[in-house]
Write a structure and sequence with these properties.
This protein has about 300 residues and is of the alpha+beta class. It has seven helices and five strands, in the order E-H-E-E-H-H-E-E-H-H-H-H. Strands 1-3-2 form a three-stranded antiparallel beta sheet. Helix 3 (about 100-170) packs antiparallel against helix 4 and helix 6 (about 270-275) runs antiparallel to helix 7. The longest helix has about 70 residues, at about 100-170. The chain starts with a strand and ends in a 7-residue tail after the last helix.
Length: about 300
């Protein structure tokens, strides 16, 4: 005689619906603990059945598992096939018919199935909530990066405008109109990220005027608090032209001093006038007077030390 029974000691209590997702983790952890406890009870009942049958009966068990949230498979039911005498089998079943044993086994399977479905549903809710939070985190990160880029572009724009305004304020007649270059930001707006002011190198009619012009150009190029590489190149060119103008001024000044010295040293007009006034003086005295007059003239021009 053969009787098949389905065992589940007490079965699993179905989880109550939880309205708030944050409580699911604790509930699922408790469910796993409950699965572990029921597994121990089923194994204990299986051992008790084997003990009651004795050594003459044959027992074959097929376990039914439920996957826990921790990834472990828990025994939540068992199908026990017993072969032996009717007396032995009734002793194990407490005198109940085989149909009753099968009914208990069916209830165990249904309870295990319901528990598995409930666990799967809870896992789906937790995963959906986790995915939602991850998506929100990524969205917030992208939004923060966008805001950071916009703030950086706004700062660059303010710096460029101030930079070119400093050039224009210092340039005066040597500067032209400012022109800007733009970059589109992540918000779709255009921001100023570059600019330039043309500066004219204007030579003067004289070296002095050229020097003043180049000093003005140099000051214009260095007007911003943070001159660019191009600004420094313009300033260097202006400095070179200014140095050249200074050299011309120095050379012209030296030539003027040389011409002035030669004119003063001649003293001819005064000597000739003295000769004409003193024609009645004899030749010897006239020669002395000429020398004295020349010496006096040189003293007047500060070319000889006073006697």
């Amino acid at each position: 005689m053969q009787i098949t029974s389905m065992l589940s000691a007490g079965y699993l209590e179905p989880m109550s619906d939880i309205s708030r997702v944050q409580k699911l983790n604790d509930s699922v952890k408790e469910a796993d603990q409950s699965k572990q406890q029921k597994e121990q009870e089923i194994l204990a009942e299986e051992q008790a059945i084997k003990a009651k049958l004795g050594s003459s009966a044959q027992v074959h068990t097929v376990y039914h598992y439920t996957l826990g949230t921790d990834g472990r498979r828990y025994i939540t039911g068992a199908s026990v096939t017993m072969k032996g005498s009717e007396q032995d089998l009734n002793r194990v079943g407490g005198g109940i018919a085989s149909e009753d044993l099968q009914s208990r086994g069916k209830e165990a399977l249904e309870s295990a199935k319901k528990d598995s479905e409930e666990t799967e549903r809870n896992q789906t809710i937790i995963k959906a909530e986790s995915d939602k939070r991850e998506a929100e985190r990524k969205e917030d990160k992208a939004e923060n990066e966008k805001d950071s880029q916009v703030r950086e572009l706004e700062q660059i724009q303010n710096e460029v405008i101030a930079h070119e305004a400093a050039h224009q304020a210092a340039a005066g007649e040597f500067g032209g109109g400012v022109s800007y270059s733009y970059t589109q930001g992540p918000d779709g707006q255009s921001y100023i990220t570059g600019g330039e002011v043309p500066i004219r190198f204007k030579e003067g009619a004289t070296p002095e005027e050229t020097l003043r012009n180049m000093q003005k150009v140099q000051a214009t190029a260095n007007a911003p608090a943070d001159p660019s590489g191009q600004d420094r190149q313009v300033a260097a060119k202006a400095a070179a032209l200014a140095s050249k103008a200074r050299g011309e001024i120095t050379r012209e000044s030296s030539e003027e001093r040389t011409e002035h010295t030669e004119t003063v040293a001649s003293g001819t007009p005064i000597i000739e006038a003295i000769k004409r006034e003193d024609e009645h003086v004899d030749a010897e005295k006239n020669g002395v007077m000429s020398v004295l007059a020349s010496v006096k003239e040189l003293q007047l021009q500060n070319l000889l030390p006073a006697a």
